[in-house]
Amino acid sequence: xxxxxxxxxxxxxxxxxxxxxxxxxxxxxxxxxxxxxxxxxxxxxxxxxxxxxxxxxxxxxxxxxxxxxxxxxxxxxxxxxxxxxxxxxxxxxxxxxxxxxxxxxxxxxxxxxxx
Length: 115
Description:
two-stranded antiparallel ribbon, Serine Threonine Protein Phosphatase 5, Tetratricopeptide repeat, about 120 residues
């Protein structure tokens, strides 16, 4: 984490550096820091879909499915053909932002608690 913090200090106007910091913080379950970094990335580059996906991941991981939906919709708007690899879903399944929105909406309708 320390190196990613130094990177964003050195390059504070880099959306990529901010998103990298967000991704590392997310992996370490530092959700407030991850969210802040991804939000900064969207401020720097409002057309950077990875940052919005990161925001959605932070929200969904914390059970805030309704809050994740607008970020996923923004991902879909910016990059409609985006596919996501590395998610542990079903072998060979292609996951798109549209599918993730449907999942989040389903979780919300199912009444899963929002934290």
